[in-house]
């Protein structure tokens, strides 16, 4: 941390001060569920159990970011920026199902909903999902600082600025039937958020240490897109059917962030461990065909999502 006229609780800035924090740690996203395949009546006309596979897109990954503040002395105004990258590779699941016969069957339609694979009596179907997710975000804005220590609150920083977030997902979904037929979905889902974040931080002493309590609220335009290809193969591995579906949507979404960060000393280094949770009201979810009776293709909608974070900041 480079500083002139260091700020402590109960004081307002009297000269310029720059603060840069490099942070890294873990994130655990809980993204919209991945749903596919179904149980249908023999002949495929009636769906008896939709979304036979219903997986939560969640795992533990790594993240890294850089946060900075610059105080415009002698005013209360501060310029803030924050950039972050996080990712998880190979989130997956694997489930096997026995044919429910004799009046129903396990069904996997292609993405345009006009072709299918199905189990026969005594067959099994095994579904494997392999997913990757990449998140990156950028923020720049202004804050003002208010000394509320005389009222027992602490220092309040509050402001707003431009924010962009992206959550990009790749899915490889494979259905293997005991008849040696197989079907595969290869899908790319992009979520781009452009909007405004209102950010606030209360800094106060707790247990003899400065503690930062963050509360952010964002409103965004969500641009979501989907590009999926299905490939069906016979017992010899020869492709017998391919189909492609492209879809997009635009929607207003909002986010809520809560975090707690604690200043500490690690040897001679100032560190700030923290924990956070983010709620996202809308993120792209995939609606896969459940039957071929109406030839309804894959489409996209939205569902909410959560992201947990555990970080350690190094104050430069």
Q: How much is the radius of gyration in Å? A: 25 Å
Query: How does the overall form come out from the CA principal axes?
Result: elongated
Structural class: mainly beta
Q: What would the average pLDDT be, to the nearest integer?
A: 91
Distance between the termini: 4 Å
Strand composition percent: over 45%
The unreliable regions are 1-8, 10-15
Walk across the major sheet and give the strand order: 2-4-5-8-9-10-11-12-14-15
Supply database-style keywords.
15 strands; mainly beta; 0% helix; 10-stranded antiparallel β-barrel; disordered N terminus; single chain; 316 residues
Please sum up the structure shown.
The chain has strands at residues 2-3, 17-41, 47-58, 61-71, 77-98, 104-109, 116-118, 124-147, 155-177, 182-206, 209-233, 239-262, 264-266, 269-287, 299-315. By secondary structure, the protein is an all-beta fold.
SSE layout:
Blueprint lengths: L1 E2 L13 E25 L5 E12 L2 E11 L5 E22 L5 E6 L6 E3 L5 E24 L7 E23 L4 E25 L2 E25 L5 E24 L1 E3 L2 E19 L11 E17 L1
Antiparallel strand pairs: 1-2, 2-3, 2-4, 2-6, 2-15, 4-5, 5-8, 6-7, 8-9, 9-10, 10-11, 11-12, 12-14, 13-14, 14-15
What can you tell me about this protein's structure?
The chain has 316 residues and is mostly beta strands. Helix content is 0%, strand content 76%. It has strands at 2-3, 17-41, 47-58, 61-71, 77-98, 104-109, 116-118, 124-147, 155-177, 182-206, 209-233, 239-262, 264-266, 269-287, 299-315. The chain has a ten-stranded antiparallel barrel. Strand 2 and strand 3 form a beta hairpin. The chain is elongated and about 75 Å long. Residues 1-8 and 10-15 have low confidence and may be disordered.
